[in-house]
Input
Amino acid sequence: MPPTLIRVWLAVVFLASGTIYGWSRPTTLVPLACAAAPAALALMLRGPVRVAGVAALAFVLGAGNAALRAHDRGPLEVMAHDVPRCTVTGRVLEEAGGLGTLVAIRRLLCPGRREVSDAGTVFFDGAVGHAGSGIRAQGWLLPLTDDGFGRARRNLGADASFHSVELDVLTPPGGAFAVAASIRQGLHTATAALQARRAALLHGLTIGETSGLDPATVETFRRAGLSHLLAVSGTNVAIVLGAVALVARRLPLAPRIALGAICLGLFVVTVGPDPSVLRAAVMGAIGLAAIAWGRRAEPLHALGLAILLLLGLRPGLVFSAGLHLSAAATAGIVLWSAPLAARLSWLPRVAAVPLAATLAAQAAVMPVLLATFGEVSLIAPAANLLAVPVVAPATVGGLVAACSAIIHGGFGGALARPLEPLAGWVLWVADTGAAVPWAAVSVPRPFGLVAAVPVLLQAARTLMTWGDRTRRAALAMSRVPNMPDYHWVLHDVSGKDLGPTQPCPSRGEAEDFMGREWAALLEEGAHSATLVGDGKKLYTMGLTAE
Output
C-alpha cells in the first residue's frame, strides 16, 4: 500500500480517536498540546517515524479541538439552566432529522437580562425551516438533557434547546440561500399536478426533502434497503457534477471548473448540509481542484482528506451515523466494485457494474447498520439494482424542472410530468421488496462488531495490493490501440521493473508528469524510471532526492 495512503488514513483514524477522547476528557488539553511539538517535528523525518508523527499530531489536534468545544460554556448554556422565557432571532443552519433543527442565534432577549448577540446555537423541535431561513421566535430556553438524545444534540454543536410558543420563519433576503429557496419552491410548483406520493418521492430523490412522505412509505424504503434514496448523498452530488461536466464539455478548463464549483456549492445550499452531502461535496471540491492542477484525484486519498477536513471543522460529526454510512459506502465502492464487476463478467455490463457497486456498498455498510440500527436488508441488492438506474434522470430532471418553474410554473410542470413514471417505478420496487417476508432481518447490535472483522480484513487485503492493481490497470490502458504511447517504466532499487505509469499523449506531457509525481513514486518504492516512446527506450533517470 502506498505510504501516502497509509499516512492519510492513519491521520483519519487518530483524528477521530482524538476527537472522541477530547470530548470525553476535556481537562487533558494542556498535556496533549505539549505533545504536539515532538509530533510536529516527527513530520520532518522519513519512514515509520513520520507515519507515527502524522498519527500522533492528528490525535493531538482532534483531542484539543474537541476539548475546547466540549469545555466552553457559552451564555446560552448558562442561561438555559434558569429556563427563561426569551425572544430570539437567528438563522437555520441545518435540519438534523429526528433531532430537530439547528439554529444559530443572532439576538437573544430575555426579560430582566441584557440583550446578547451571537449567543450560540440551539435546537428547535421538528423541521422549522431550510438552511439559510431566518427565524423569529418566542418561547422557553431549555438545557440539553444528559441522555443520548441530548448528547447527540450537543455533539452537533448545540448549546441549548428552545421550545417555541410563537414562531415566524422568514425567507432568505438574498444571495445563495435565496436562490436555493427559489429552487425548492420551484420544485414544489413543478410537481404540484403529480400524484401526491410520487411528487413527495421526487422531492426526496432530488433535494432530500421527505416531509411529504407518510411514515409507512419511509418504513417501506427502509425494509427494502432503499432509504438512502430519500437522503441526498454522494450519488446525487456525482450526478450533478456529471451533468454539469456534460453540458460544459466544450468550454475551456477554467470556466468548466468554475461552473462546477458554483453548481456544487448551490446544490449543497439547496439540499442542506447533511453529513453525507458535506462528505461528497468536499470530495467533489478536491476532485475539481485536482483537475485544475492537472492532477488525478485518487478516490481513497480524496475520501480521507474529506473526512479530515470535516472532523477538523465539525468534530461532532465523528458521532454521526450518516457520515459513517457515507464514508463506508464510498470506501466499499472504491475498493471492491471493480473486482466484483470483473467476477460478474458473465452478466451484461449494464447490469454487472451497478450490481457490483451495490454489493460493494452493502458489504461495507453492513457493520455500521447492524451496530447502529440492529437491522440489515437482505432484499437491498436486488432492489437497488432495479431502482438506482432511474435515480440519475429523476435527480437531473427534477432540478431542471425546479429551475424552469422559477421562470414559468407551467413549463416546469411540463418537464416534471415525464418524471412521474420514474418515481412510480421506484415506489413499486420499494413496495414489492418490502412485502417479501425476509426482506429485512433484525439482529443484536453487538453483532455489528462481529461483522466488522471480515469487512476490515478484506479491506486490508485489498489495500495491500492497491499499488499493484493500479499499475496493472495502467499497463492494460497502455496496450489499448490508439492510446498515447509515451510513458515511464518504473524500477526498484535492484533494477526490477515495477510497471508503467499512466500513458501521455506527448513526450513533453510525460516529462511534466514525472516532474510533478517523482516524489510520490519514490515513496511508493520506485528508484529510477525509463521514458518509453514509440516503443523505444529514450532515457533513464534516477528518482532519489539526494
Remarks:
- The two ends are 24 Å apart (CA to CA).
- Residues 47-71 form the longest helix (25 residues).
- The chain is about 60% helix and 15% strand.
- The first strand starts at residue 85 and ends at 95.
